Structures are given as structure tokens and as C-alpha cells.
């Protein structure tokens, strides 16, 4: 192995070894990392800004020392003096590699911007916001009534709107008197109506009749992405939706890597808290700009997140979540203020964070339960929300069970040799010709297949850059369906598979998807290690679902709901061919889109839903996969494609999967197990 320093780029996960003195921009270009530059590396354009991460990263097996990159040079100093660099940033064309280093490429330095696929789903939501506008006529002061202006405002709210015991923060007192007089003693008041922990409180005040509106944000804070919806609190309309990569990715792509980082680095948890809050504030600025509103009009916010993100966002060290019994600091809902979390919206804005279900099943799963209501279902429904960590719910009117499963980031394109996040140019759909065994594909940003006329012109701006999560899932399923990958997950030789796209790659074989090297583009392949990464991810997902089915005493479910970006963009047939989900009729497998985000919107726009979800969570039965003996058994069986023992009769009635194996040891695919049928 080379002794050259190891360079790891996030969020792409691409890595390679480079000689000491290699500019970061050069390393990025050689690895195909999406790092912008238009000035030819002269330190003029500033588009190649990067953020090095320092400390111990157990997931990557590296410790990044403070002198991993060269010191600032005159070019960087001049640029910082004239235009300014954010703290911790370097110019990739100027910083050179001296030792092992992890480099984060921020969103603004990426040529092909991340596509955050968490849109606002169309949904009827009862409108009952926690903050409302009230127009009041306040009694003017006179020499015979010594009461203060605030007291007379209280009286007006009580008499005209039956709002009693309304509180006011100091900043209201500081602006109230001139506003009352400017409005000729008629004002519009935004009031948070209170909750189980807080009395009603004046949020803002305008002179006269305010004919505008106020806003709230519903935020799905995920391990990989942060998605938010800006909503009009008077109409319930979604005014703007946007998302960003979670800047914590540079500390580790999966949750346990971040817990490990906090354990092994002093101030590690504080670093990650600061990073996610800064990312959140940037997202709010982006939303407000998109909608053309003042951020100070955002007076309410609801957050959903997994337990580790919950703790890091709140500034709580996630240490206890990294070891049994995975104790949360609190599982209850949180009612806070924006300034408690350093958020750049209205200083008194109310923040509601949904309750967590268990140490590994968070507020995001609670939001999915609020959105999809398994507890009211007459049939047995399995709800799967797939991300870096999968949350799984199974239930009906009888009971609801919940667990999480550590799928890792492979479904999002990470840890895959040609993998990338969803962005223009990424392969997202795949088909393999049953005769030639050659692939064709679609990329994000074009509706044309790669074999169709006009494809090259349609992608001229982006090119073909890699494979995103939906693409790699369809790719592996197609390879299995057409006899290129066997059930244990081994890619056969060109002779065994009958495909000229297969080539020897060391001790195993790989499959050629796209060769753009003649035009300076990437070589995109699927390796046997890629297959293994997908097997591990899908086995973890299926094992969690199967474990809940065991606990429920069933061998099948009535319907499956796929939530998250995964559910909206993956073919259900390909998901079942992989064995990601239990065997079920394809018309009973549906997508709920971003159900966690929908649950957050429901809680934002209907304050009664907050008490409802707190009650629902109290009645959900939590299953901890880490201590369940059968989880490992299911995991081993589910490592096969689709499964070593489960028969999958419905799938087998739709597709016929090849039975040959490519291991020289021979053998078959594994027999089906005789399992009890679902009880009525």
C-alpha cells in the first residue's frame, strides 16, 4: 500500500492517496469530486472553497492532524483580506496535502448542486396554528387612569378576544409604545396561544390593521439532508420548500460515526452542534429569500429528527446513545424558543420538537406515525422510512410496533465506487437489455434514456457523473434479474453471464455502466464490493421489518408504505427483487413521499396534533434490534438477493429470477422455509 497521504472528500465519500504537496483541487479532479473552479487555480474566483476537518475519525480509520494541509499562503491571505473567507475555509487550489485529511466540499462549491428530494406532499391538514393575529382597539391613557400601556393592551385582548393572562417579552415592551401611538391606539398583535407548558404570549405587534401574514417552518432534520417547508400560518399554504446537505456529514456519514467523533474529540459534540445550527440558519435565509419575506415574520417552527440529530441540535452530547441501553436525555416533546437554539428567525419564535419513540427511534418516526396513522388502520400496514438510518413501523388498530435499522448511507449513493448524492448528471433509472445484457439509463435532469437520440445533447451541461441511490438500487436489481449477479451477490464472468459489459477486476468481476473517459468523463462501474454494500444495507432494512412481523406473530402484511425520498423514487418491483421489503402485491406497495416532513407540517399547522402525537408515541411498542437474537438470523438470510429462505411467492409470480450461482463451489439459491401463515 502507498505511503502517500489519504484524502477523503465529503459528502461524496470519494477517496484516494496523493503525493505530499498535491493541491486539494487537483486531488478532487482526479477523483471526480464535484469541486468548482473557473480561474484555473489562480486563487481569484474563490469557487473552490473547502473545509478541512480535524480530529479522530474512527469510521475512516484516520486521525487528521492540525498540519494536514499546508499553511495559508499569500494568495489565500490576500483573498481573505479583500473578500473574506468563512472561518475554517481554505481555497482548494492553494491548500496542498501534507498528511491524511478529510475535506468537506460545501454546497456553494459544488458545480452540480445537490437535489434534496423532500418535497411538500399534497395533504389536507386541519388549520389550527399555535400563533394567530388579533386586531384590537386599545383604550388611550389619561390622567385619571395610571395603568400602563401593556396593561391596557391586556385589557383589550381580554375584552375583545377573550384572551386572558397574555405575557409579553422585554422586546415587546421596548417597541410597544411608539407602535400604539403610530396606530392611533389600534394595533394588530401576533399571539402564541400557549400550550401545556407556556401561557399565551405576545410575539409581535404592528400599528393599525396589519394585512400581511405570519409564517412557520416545518423542518425534517435528517442525517444527510435538512429539508424545510415555509408555511403561511393563516392559510396553511406552503410558500417555499428547500433543502441543504447536513453539514455534519464531514464528521461522519452515519450516526454512530458522529457519536464516535464526539467521544474521541474534545469539543466534538459542540462542533457538530454549531455546524448543524449554522446549516439550519443558512436554510432559513434561503427559504426567506426564495419566498421574498422577512425572516422576522417566521414565528413558529416544528422539528423532526432522529435521536442523535435531536441531541446534537439541542446541544446535548450523544454519548449515551452510542452504548446500551441507548438512553435518551429526554424522550418527551420539547417546547423552546428560537433564541435557545441560536436560530435566525423571530427572536421569540416558538420551537416545537416532536417526541422521540426510543433511543434509536426518533421524532422523525413519530412524525411518520402522525402522517400515516397506522394506529387507525383496519389492515396491517408496514411503514418504512429509509435514510441513513431506517425507521420502521408495523401496526393496525390492535397495536403499533416500531424499530430502527442501521442501513448506512449506501442507499444514498455513498460507499459505492461510482456513487454520488442526487444531483444533475447522476444516473437514477436503469434497465438492462435481456438479450445483449447491456445497460441503458436516465440521469437526473433529462427524461431521455441513454440509448435515445438527443441524449448527449440533453446532458451536455451536466454530463454523466455517477450513480445516485435510486440508480444503484435499480442497477443491482436489474443485474440480478438478468443473471449478471447471483443470489449470494457474486458477479459472474463475461462467459457465465453472456454480457460483454462484465470484465475481470482483480479477484472478482465488475460491470461496465458507462465509459466517458474519451471525453474526459468518468468511468462508471458496479463492483462486487458495491453489490456487497447494497446487500448489507437492504439486509438491515428487511431484518428490521421481519423482526417486527415476528413480534406481531405474522408472516405477511396487507400493505407496505415507503416513506422518504426512497419511497418516491424507487421502483417497488426493484425493491422487492432486492429483498428490501417483504413480499406483497405490488399494487399494495405505495409511496408516502416525505412522510416525516408531512408530519412536521401537520404539527406546525394544527396545534391539536401535538397532543395527539404525544399520545400516539406513548402507546407505540418499541423493539430494540440490537438485543433481539433473531435479528442476526434474519440479517444473514436477507443478505441473499432477494432472500435465502423466504419464498417470495408474489414476486416469483411476476419475475423469474435465474437460479445459477457463480461460486465455483456450486450450490443453489437456498430452499424456502416452511413458515406459519399469518393469523387472522
From TrEMBL:
Q: InterPro entries of this UniProt entry?
A: 2Fe-2S_ferredoxin-like_sf, 2Fe-2S_ferredoxin-type, Beta-grasp_dom_sf, Corrinoid_activation_enz, Raco-like_middle, Raco-like_middle_sf, RACo_C, RACo_linker
Query: Which segments carry the region annotation Disordered?
Result: 661-680
| Example GO molecular function | iron-sulfur cluster binding
Q: Which residues form the 2Fe-2S ferredoxin-type domain?
A: 5-109
Bias kind Gly residues: ranges: 664-673
What's this protein's name? Uncharacterized 2Fe-2S/4Fe-4S cluster protein (DUF4445 family)
Recorded source organism is Sulfitobacter undariae
Phylogenetic lineage: Bacteria, Pseudomonadati, Pseudomonadota, Alphaproteobacteria, Rhodobacterales
Amino acid at each position: 500500500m502507498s505511503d502517500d497521504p489519504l484524502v477523503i472528500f465529503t459528502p461524496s465519500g470519494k477517496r484516494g492517496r496523493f503525493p505530499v504537496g498535491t493541491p486539494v483541487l487537483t486531488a478532487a479532479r482526479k477523483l471526480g469530486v464535484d469541486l468548482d473552479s473557473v480561474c484555473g487555480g489562480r486563487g481569484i474566483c474563490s469557487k473552490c472553497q473547502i473545509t478541512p476537518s480535524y480530529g479522530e475519525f474512527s469510521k475512516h480509520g484516520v486521525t487528521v492532524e492540525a498540519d494536514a494541509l499546508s499553511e495559508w499562503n499569500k494568495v489565500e491571505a490576500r483573498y481573505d483580506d479583500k473578500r473574506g473567507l468563512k472561518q475554517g475555509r481554505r481555497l482548494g487550489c492553494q491548500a496542498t496535502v501534507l498528511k491524511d485529511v478529510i475535506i468537506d466540499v460545501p454546497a456553494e462549491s459544488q458545480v452540480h448542486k445537490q437535489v434534496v428530494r423532500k418535497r411538500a406532499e399534497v395533504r389536507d391538514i386541519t388549520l389550527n396554528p399555535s400563533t394567530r393575529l388579533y386586531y384590537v382597539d386599545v383604550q388611550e391613557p389619561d390622567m385619571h387612569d395610571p395603568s400602563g400601556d401593556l396593561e391596557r393592551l391586556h385589557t383589550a385582548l381580554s375584552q375583545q378576544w377573550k384572551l386572558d393572562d397574555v405575557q409579553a417579552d422585554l422586546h415587546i415592551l421596548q417597541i410597544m409604545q411608539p407602535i400604539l401611538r403610530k396606530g392611533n391606539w389600534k394595533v394588530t398583535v401576533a399571539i402564541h396561544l400557549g400550550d401545556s407548558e407556556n401561557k399565551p404570549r405576545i410575539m409581535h405587534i404592528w400599528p393599525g390593521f396589519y394585512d400581511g401574514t405570519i409564517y412557520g417552518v416545518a423542518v425534517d432534520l435528517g442525517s444527510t439532508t435538512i429539508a424545510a417547508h415555509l408555511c403561511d400560518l393563516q392559510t396553511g399554504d406552503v410558500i417555499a420548500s428547500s433543502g441543504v446537505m447536513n453539514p455534519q456529514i464531514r464528521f461522519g456519514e452515519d450516526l454512530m460515526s458522529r457519536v464516535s467523533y464526539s467521544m474521541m474529540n474534545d469539543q466534538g459534540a459542540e462542533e457538530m452542534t454549531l455546524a448543524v445550527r449554522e446549516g439550519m440558519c443558512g436554510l432559513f435565509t434561503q427559504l426567506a429569500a426564495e419566498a421574498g419575506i422577512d425572516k422576522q415574520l417566521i414565528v413558529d417552527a416544528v422539528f423532526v429528527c432522529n435521536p442523535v440529530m435531536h441531541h446534537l441540535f439541542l446541544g446535548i452530547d450523544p454519548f449515551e446513545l452510542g452504548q446500551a441501553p441507548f438512553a435518551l436525555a429526554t424522550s418527551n416533546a420539547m417546547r423552546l424558543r428560537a433564541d435557545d437554539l441560536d436560530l435566525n428567525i423571530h427572536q421569540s419564535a416558538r420551537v416545537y420538537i416532536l417526541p422521540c419513540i426510543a433511543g434509536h427511534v426518533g421524532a422523525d418516526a413519530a412524525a411518520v406515525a402522525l402522517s400515516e396513522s397506522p394506529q387507525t388502520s383496519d389492515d396491517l400496514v408496514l411503514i418504512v422510512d429509509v435514510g441513513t438510518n431506517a425507521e420502521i413501523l408495523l401496526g393496525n388498530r390492535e397495536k403499533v410496533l416500531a424499530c430502527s435499522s442501521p442501513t448506512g448511507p449506501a442507499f444514498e449513493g455513498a460507499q459505492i465506487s461510482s456513487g454520488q448524492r442526487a444531483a444533475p448528471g447522476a444516473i437514477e433509472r436503469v434497465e438492462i437489455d435481456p438479450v445483449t445484457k447491456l445497460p441503458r439509463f436516465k440521469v437526473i435532469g433529462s427524461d431521455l434514456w441513454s440509448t435515445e437520440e438527443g441524449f448527449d445533447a440533453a446532458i451536455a451541461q451536466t454530463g454523466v457523473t455517477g450513480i445516485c441511490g435510486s440508480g444503484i438500487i435499480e442497477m443491482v436489481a436489474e443485474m440480478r434479474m438478468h443473471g449478471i449477479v447471483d443470489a449470494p451477490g457474486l458477479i459472474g464472468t463475461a462467459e457465465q453471464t453472456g454480457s460483454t459489459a462484465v470484465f475481470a477486476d482483480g479477484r472478482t468481476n465488475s460491470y461496465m455502466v458507462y465509459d466517458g473517459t474519451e471525453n474526459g468523463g468518468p468511468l462508471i462501474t458496479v463492483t462486487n464490493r458495491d453489490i456487497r454494500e447494497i446487500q448489507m444495507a437492504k439486509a438491515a432494512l428487511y431484518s428490521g421489518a421481519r423482526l417486527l412481523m415476528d413480534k406481531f406473530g405474522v408472516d405477511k402484511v396487507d400493505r407496505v408504505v415507503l416513506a422518504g425520498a426512497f419511497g418516491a423514487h424507487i421502483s417497488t418491483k426493484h425493491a422487492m427483487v432486492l429483498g428490501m421489503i417483504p413480499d406483497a402485491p405490488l399494487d399494495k406497495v405505495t409511496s408516502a413521499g416525505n412522510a416525516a416532513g408531512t408530519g412536521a407540517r401537520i404539527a406546525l399547522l394544527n396545534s391539536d396534533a401535538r397532543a395527539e402525537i404525544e399520545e400516539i408515541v406513548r402507546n407505540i411498542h418499541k423493539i430494540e434490534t440490537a438485543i433481539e437474537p433473531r435479528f442476526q438470523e434474519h440479517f444473514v438470510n436477507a443478505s441473499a438477493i432477494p432472500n435465502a429462505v423466504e419464498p417470495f411467492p408474489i414476486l416469483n409470480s411476476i419475475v423469474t429470477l435465474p437460479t445459477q450461482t457463480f461460486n465455483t463451489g456450486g450450490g443453489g439459491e437456498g430452499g424456502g422455509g416452511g413458515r406459519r401463515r399469518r393469523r387472522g
